[in-house]
Predict the structure of ABC transporter permease.
Amino acid sequence: MSNLMMSEWYKLKRDRSFWTLILLLMMTSLFYPLLIVFDEGATTIKVIDFYRNTILEGNNYVIRLVPCILAGFFISSEYSIGTMKSITASGNSRAHIYFAKLIVYSIGAVLISLIFPLIFTGAVSVFLHFNGMPGIGYFAGTIGLTILYTIAFASMMALFATIFTDSGKAIGFMLIFFIIFDSILYLLGSLSPVFEIIYNYSVFKLFLDIGNIGTVHGAEMIQLVITPVVTFVAFGILGNYLFQKKEIK
């Protein structure tokens, strides 16, 4: 298992799509604050307000969409070019192969998801002269939840990338799915109590509350933490099951 993870980590570090996504997000994080300063001025905005209303909300789209592209190239493409067939013929169990791929891919997704909260916030803080910085507890809490919800969505993306063995089809399907599925689930929830419960306890709804953790306590906070963990485990098991049954050509 450790050798498989080292191999996957080596491939991730050499994956061009991964570094391209990293570079684009870093450029956005470093240059976008200039537009804010020139447009509204550096003394009229507090860092915590910008962090909550712009960075975290923008990062919601990053978490749901950008790792889809990485999944297509890092996972799905290995089926189409024959790499996955060679790996499964190496003598390692399919469960070890799948979870090694899932864990390393999740790490890549987490690194992508942390660019806005870390680099974007750092750049904005400098341009805004550290006016109204978020508290360390609030900042650490949002970072922790960002990681949890990223790996939850990553487990879904890894599942879809396993189903679709072509990177183009996988990326296209996942982008559409993660753009519209929460709206569909919300609509179904307004029509049926069962779907309402599913929506209210799903990562699609709860991850929108990451920026509101200052007002969340007790059972709500436990739910906010447990839901992505359960989602990651559930979709990891389901993805492994499908990988076990999959015919790899």
Summary: The chain is about 80% helix and 0% strand. Residues 2-245 form one domain. The chain has a mean pLDDT of 87.
